[in-house]
Amino acid sequence: MNRRFYCEIAGFCGKHAFNVHFHTLNVHFFFVQKSTYMKISILMPLLYHNDTIMKNDKICVFESEILHILLANSILSTTMQFRKMKKIQFLKVSDYMKTITRTKYLDRIIELNGTPDIKIITGIRRSGKSKLMQAYIAYLKNNFENINIIFIDFMDLAYEEIKEYHALHSYVEEHYQEGKTNYLFVDEVQMCPKFELAINSLYSKGKYDIYVTGSNAFLLSADLATLFTGRYIEIHVFPFSFQEYCQYYDDISDKDKLFDEYAIKGGLAGSYAYRTEKDRTNYIKEVYETIVTRDLVQKYNLPDTLVLQRLSEFLMDNISNLTSPNKVSQLLTANETPTNHVTVGKYIKYLCNAFVFYDIKRYDIRGKKYLESSEKFYLCDSGIRYAILGSRNMDYGRVYENIVCIELLRRGYDVYVGKLYQKEIDFVAQRGGEKFYIQVSDNISGQETFERERSPLLQIRDAYPKMIIARTKHPKYSYEGIEIHDIADWLLQE
Fold it and tell me: Which sign, positive or negative, has the C-alpha torsion 218, 223, 227, 231?
């Protein structure tokens, strides 16, 4: 039994109703009624001998049983039995993985359509780079006619023979079509050694609109200028925002409940398919460990993975704390992981290059200059912290601060930690001529906490907006010129 077998059945039963879902020995059917999938449960022989269908259960059908019916009864009669069920679908595995259109990223790529630059889609593993590329290809096919799309996915064994840069170059040239707009898409490009030689050569011909994705550890922002001799534009993809999380679940009826879930689950959407917390966290752990213990070790030929692991966990545990390589090396050494500030400094750089962490520098608001003495590091996704550390030292104020930081970066702001005299402003955010100051907190209902958060903001004498983002569960309000936002509302604003 194979895919063709099921596809043939689908073809008999109507071209609009069917996709194919494969399990080891059985196939699952879903009955569609009023746009809702209703599970049905009944064995195929019983289904065949009945004119009506039992609803609200699940059908499990063995391949052999389908084949038996096809052989014993004609194709026609079997088809009629299927058609009585009207809108039945064979589901693909991917159908369990709901996808959403990430409009902002897609709009950005569409904006770059036709520009001569190499478009490079970067981001942490499983952040949705390949899905974004596929969404853009679908957009092109739906909106343009005179185009030729050359798509190469090096994760697919079908392209195994061109995992050599000369072969890659020849393959693309062979598939070029004169008189059409030729688009080249290469997914997981790092699996072709010296891929940059092929891409640069193809770019120099001026015949292709080129789009590339790759593993974050092998297609680093820091390396792009070296790899690509021509002009390039980086499109950086983050894990799901809270807004996208709500879109995924198609629900905003209880945004507070959804936000509580999002703070724990994070934005690695691949984990949403798992029903148990254990399976979900295991998925996230595997993504994280692949980056830290495999990708980075392989790229930089690191001799000691233990220091890298302990360093990463330390940074997770100390989100929003000012950190320096010297301080971290002392603490790791004191906890039986001997190292030095030079190694720690290099490893922090590697983790940031791979988008596991983002380093946020300090800015002297009064002196209007950047401070180099220490930085803060924020994790790319809050779900990773929970998956790796669990509820250990769980400080929701810090978790919310991390979420706000990543959201500001996602929205395209340059972000700094503000220093004013001896006080600290969580974030100074700038984008073009726009600038504002932010304090983030868990609960500001207590007078002491509220005073602590608003006091530094009131000392800033310029006219730029100031806000506190906290878990208020109230509509936005103002206090002495400071805007007070509920964090869930603020995350849904843009």
Answer: positive
The burial class, CB within 10 Å (0-12 / 13-18 / 19+), for 249 is: middle
- Is the CATH number of domain 103-236 3.40.50.720? no
Query: Within 10 A of 395 (CB to CB), how many other CB atoms are there?
Result: 12
Structure tokens at 348: 């922090």
**Residue 265: closest CA among 241, 238, 289, 286:** 241
Could you report the per-residue pLDDT of 379-413, keeping only the tens digit for each?
999 999 999 998 777 789 999 999 999 999 999 99
∠ Cα 154 6 271 (to 5°): 50
* DSSP per residue, 114-168: T-SSEEEEE-STTSSHHHHHHHHHHHHHHH-SSEEEEEEETTSGGGGGG-SHHHH
Residue 231 has pLDDT above 80, yes or no: yes
491 and 259 Cβ atoms separated by less than 8 Å: yes
pLDDT in tens, 439-474: 999 999 999 999 999 999 998 888 999 999 999 999
Alpha carbon distance 228, 117 (integer Å): 10
Domain extent listing, the chain: 3-96, 103-236, 244-492
> What sign does the dihedral 422-427-431-436 (CA atoms) show?
negative
Task: Report angle CA 63, 66, 68 to the nearest 5 degrees.
Answer: 105
Q: What pTM value is reported for the model?
A: 0.78
Q: Where are the beta strands (DSSP E) in 325-470?
A: 357-364, 369-379, 414-420, 423-431, 434-440, 466-470
Q: How far apart are CA 232 and CA 114, in angstroms?
A: 13
Q: Are 331 and 339 in contact (CB under 8 A)?
A: no
Could you give phi then psi for residue 358, rounded to 5 degrees?
-120, 130
Distance CA 350, CA 356 (A): 9
139-181 pLDDT, tens digit each: 999 999 999 999 999 989 999 999 999 999 999 999 999 999 9
pLDDT (tens digit, 9 = 90+) per residue, 234-263? 999 999 999 999 999 987 889 999 999 999
Indicate the Cα dihedral angle 290, 296, 302, 307, nearest 10°: -70
Place of tokens 């000369």: 166
Cα torsion 425, 426, 429, 434 to 10°: value is -40
Number of Cβ within 10 Å of residue 444's Cβ equals 21
88-147 pLDDT tens trace: 344 344 444 578 889 999 999 999 999 999 999 999 988 999 999 999 999 999 999 999
